[in-house]
Amino acid sequence: MKNGQGQVAEIHLDSRARILCPPELIPAPGQYIFAHALGSDEPLAVPVFFSGSAPDGFRAAPGLPLSWTPGTKLNLRGPLGRGFAIPASARKVALVAFDDSPERLRGLIPIAFKQGAEVVLVSDVAAHDLPEAVEIQPLQAFSEICQWADYAAFDVSRENLPRLREKIGMGNQLQAQILVRAPMPCGAVAECGVCAVNIRNEWKLICKDGPVFEF
Ligand code: FES
């Protein structure tokens, strides 16, 4: 984990942003960096998730403060948390955005392609400029795609985690990882507990033990 400075280079129409930062601060898919705009009166830093590669930094997933504009300078801390790890044997990869944008999962696409896997993106929120080889399905196809996949990466809010687990089904042998989203005010510094989540009857901190958990 490192501290450093970065800058917002551009904000895209799909609300992703290109962030300039030193290479050692770039989070892996599923990880995040903590960012605070220099000179802003926002009291808290915010988690910024990887969405894709970009020159001199990375493309960040949506959900950034509206006050950030191109040129905004950032204090950065990270990379933080546990990210995704696609098993090397996976050949049918499902990326499932259960209740929000699929952009936090997008960074897995080139990794899956590199190991020769097919990729299906399941989401009811549109993602732009995806590679043509990515098949897009609505959430309605959830069960069918979970049957097809040999690995799935999910993105879900903490509130919807029980609903997602129920939908996947306890008996399902699917290899899966779940990125769980919740407010993370201290970003693993103060153990504030705001991001606590119950994973298989154990309390975990999303900011530190996650945000990606094994299914
Ligand atoms: S955000 Fe404070 S413990 Fe996770």
Give a written overview of the molecule:
This protein is mostly beta strands and 215 residues long. It is 12% helix and 37% strand. It has 4 helices and 14 strands. It has helices spanning 108-114, 142-148, 161-168, 206-209, and strands at 2-11, 17-20, 32-37, 46-54, 57-60, 73-80, 92-97, 118-122, 135-137, 151-157, 175-181, 196-199, 202-205, 212-214. The longest helix is centred in the C-terminal third of the chain and has 8 residues, at 161-168. The two termini are 26 Å apart. The model has no long low-confidence stretch (mean pLDDT 93). FE2/S2 (inorganic) cluster is lined by residues 184-188, 190-195, 205, 207.
Short synopsis of the structure:
By secondary structure, this protein is mainly β. Helices cover 12% and strands 37% of the residues. The protein is built from 4 helices and 14 strands.
